[in-house]
Write a structure and sequence with these properties.
The protein has 154 residues and is an alpha/beta fold. It contains 5 helices and 9 strands. The protein has one domain: 3-Layer(aba) Sandwich (Glutaredoxin), CATH 3.40.30. The radius of gyration is 14 Å and the shape is globular.
Length: 154
């Protein structure tokens, strides 16, 4: 099921790259950008993460927190965050439960082959925990910049 603006954001509690857990309630009272990506260290996912990193200042100035979610194990996420100096947490959704709740897990097609996987998606969650915007099947390159310009004007 795809999320629509105004719907409550699905709650989650996932292991983070620092060895703890992070849940939606960790961001209560703050607007949040949550993006789902298939796999750390792949070209598209690295590009997307670095774009969010480079735009982090504009998002933070507008009051937004950022969090990335993938099915990678915590150890891989920790290496990915350190190598690319990402200033936001990365969460491990190995069971795909959170991705599915957000509509970011499902059938994909690549080179004519169908399989289940992460559907690259981004959500803006308002300070009250409601979906403000939802983007599905996004292109990695330039996506963070487009969101920044569209939502916060930078």
């Amino acid at each position: 099921m795809k999320l629509e603006p105004g719907m409550p954001a699905p709650g989650f509690r996932l292991p983070n790259d620092s060895g703890g857990e992070t849940g939606l309630e960790s961001f209560h009272g703050k607007p949040l950008v949550i993006y789902f990506y298939p796999k750390a260290f792949t070209p598209g996912c690295t590009t997307e993460a670095c774009d969010f990193r480079d735009g982090h200042g504009a998002f933070a100035a507008a009051g937004y927190e950022i969090v990335g979610v993938s099915p990678d194990p915590v150890e891989r996420l920790a290496r990915f965050r350190a190598e690319y100096e990402l200033p936001f947490p990365l969460l491990s959704d190995e069971s795909h439960t959170t991705a599915a709740a957000y509509g970011a897990w499902g059938m994909k097609k690549n080179y004519g082959k169908q399989y289940e996987g992460v559907i690259r998606s981004t959500f803006l969650i308002d300070a009250a925990g409601r979906v403000e915007r939802a983007w599905y099947n996004v292109r990695a390159k330039g996506h963070a910049t487009r969101i920044s310009r569209e939502v916060i004007g930078k």
